[in-house]
Amino acid sequence: MEIDGTDGIEPSAPPSDEADQALLEEEVKIGCTQAMLLCLGRDERMAYILGDVFELRSDHAAELLTINPAAFRKRLSRARSRIRDFMTVHCGLIDPGAACSCARRVRPAIERGRIDRNHLLFAGHGATDPRRLPVLEAVGVIERLREIAGVHQSHPTFMAPRRVTDAIRRVLASAEIRPLLG
Q1: CB 101 within 8 Å of CB 93
Q2: Residues in Cβ contact with 93 at an 8 Å cutoff, skipping those fewer than 6 apart
């Protein structure tokens, strides 16, 4: 049986406006998160990533950064405070009454050229813009490192061999994650 000349296959529906809007909001959210992290100084950003993203204990994170644990805790505290203060006042994800929300930022971001709806840098799977690859690679590296950290944290008596901590230091200093660490 033939329906409208398609041999029984209905043409695919165009992408929904809701799905497009969700991708654009995700693009705004990821871009804002990256900008917020980059507003921290490198030392605070490293402390925040090791402490809150990787959830490393202060003694382990301090060893990676070659500082003492008290200095690490202070850096992490300052980073958390700066991010929390900013987000509490500005971010609609934290406070729905805040001035900024991802949904409200889509149109201005498009108008100012920060987002090109045909070439998303962060959101969606399958976007092919080569400019987004370093960021995606960095996110992938960080996600893999977080998984490894989780395994190590599940064994509280395990102490990573020096070669492991040296490898982590090399990754933190590498160009692979430089887009996120600045």
Answers
A1: yes
A2: 29, 87, 101, 102
Q: Tens of pLDDT along 34-80?
A: 888 888 999 999 999 889 887 888 998 999 899 999 999 999 999 99
What CA–CA distances, in Å, run from 26 to 106, 109, 136? 9, 12, 14
Which parts of 66-101 fold into alpha helices (H)? 69-90
Using the CB atoms, write b or e for 16-29: b if 16+ within 10 Å.
Answer: eeeeeeebbbebbb
pTM of the model: 0.59
Query: Which pair of tokens denotes residue 69?
Result: 């644990």
CA distances from 2 to 6, 10, 12, 68, 127 (A): 6, 10, 16, 74, 35
Is 102 buried (19+), middle (13-18) or exposed (0-12) by CB count in 10 A? buried
CA atoms within 13 A on the CB side of 76: 23
Side chain identity at residue 49, one-letter code: I
Is residue 95 within 8 Å of 61, Cβ to Cβ?
no
